[in-house]
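Self-study notes.
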Amino acid sequence: MKQTFYLLLTVAILTACTKETPQNYLSFSGKLENNKDSTLTIVNNQGPIKTIKINADGTFKDTLSVKEAAIFTIQTSPAKRAPIYLNNGYDLKLSGDSEKFMTSFKFSGEGADNSNFILAQIEESQNLGNPSLILELEEVAFQNKLKSIENRYDSILNSYKELDSAMVSMAKQQTSQMIAYFNQAYNQNKTMGPGKPSPKFTDYVDYKGGKKSLDSFKGKYVYLDIWATWCGPCIQQIPFLKELEKEYHNKNIEFVSISTDEARRNGGSWEAAEKKWRNFVKDKSLTGVQLWSGKDFSFQQAYQITGIPRFIIIDPNGNIVDANAPRPSEPRLKELFSSLGL
């Protein structure tokens, strides 16, 4: 009896000693062909979390620990970046060509399916082509295209059998959001697409005096800039907008900026909001037509503007050319102007 007790106790101790405990780190190794860089850096939203030395033959090997499973970025330079899904306990191996960064990558080992799946999703997204062309399809063709896109993404998801549950959930959510975006954009395009009559604004305060409405510019193209004095990205576009206004000054186009400064950001005072706008226009020597929308946000709501800056092009007849036009800093804006004969 006593010997039996000691035997069971020994077995229990051995079982406890050999029981695996979750690793609090992961291993990452691989080889990059045609590599000329000396290090590979792993980055998250806060910045670099690990720098790994790359040997002369392109091989590398190291371990690291992550707080939670997530998509990170691996890079050898700012121009060479690729996503990777990391979690403690993984033993990831990477093979690829540094000259074909990301497009040649293949992961193997524990946890590899997650990263390979992300790369497959990116490739599929690139194969979608220009989203605007999808939005121009007739309704039946559009719905068939959406179903095809959804089926394709589901097929990619189902072809990877060892994905983390969090990755599966994330992928399904992203596909759902993409389909919802296309449907929303398509429905909006029915009323706000090229050639459709533009919603109008009326009696917006003009910095130079009086008031202006959209109809004030009939007979000319209008490049609208929806902005605010508190908006950093809006301010970044000002130098480019000035140059455009100068370059196209004698062309059949008006550059109209509409400030959306309002009371909420100015101590509850509409008077203070207007004063801030006027001071900004004066201090920055803004050119073109400078308007303030005041309490009227119906124009912005009609265009479903949820973020600024937003740029819109309207033709001489008051019809929409582009409800989400390129920014002044984008070269393709001038290409669009040229196509309009400007």
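Second protein, same conventions, sequence then structure:
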Amino acid sequence: MGRRQEHAARLRTLGDWPGYLREHGGLPGPRANLELVLAVADVAGPDTVDALIGTGEEYLVLCGVAALTDPGRLRAHATDGRWRVREGVAMALQRLGDADLPRLLDLADDWAGDAHPLVQRAAVAGVCEPRLLRSPAAAARAVALCDAVTAALAARPAAQRRDEDVRTLRKALGYCWSVAVAADKAAGLPVFERRAGSDDPDVAWIVRENRGKARMR
């Protein structure tokens, strides 16, 4: 039994989930316990999820958000100011993709058209996970998603580019492209290389960052 399963089994016997999560969550500290987050998502019911989110405590909110399945609620949390909570959104989207990949891909395409850069960031971060991109069709959708979001970033006025949320989106594109392309290099590389000729400084940075990733080599 792995750590995730051990945590899930323990949670099923407890009445005080917040206390257990605070004790074993790894915060404050450099690294949150993501195995425990996934265990919560495996076993938490709707009332528990709401209670965890309602605490407002970063790790407990992360656990609750990662267990959400409602796209509307996930979209709202995608713009949370806490990066760990935003990671919870990406984890929840990937769980959605595990269960219904076409639904996730369609949802991500919709979110890519959102005006908020953090919603766009959630879309690419949710889809660009290697375990979800095992088919050529899924890889192609991921590449197209990265391309669309990169184009949206390049279309933003220069005055917006230093906004923290836009920089967060740029950072996500700095690795998500490599995940999508590596899933099917023959089809993905030509799309990526078309971006390499851009004179937009942010697009150029995204290209350099992805070219430096081991998976691209």
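Instructor comment on the second fold: The chain has a mean pLDDT of 97.
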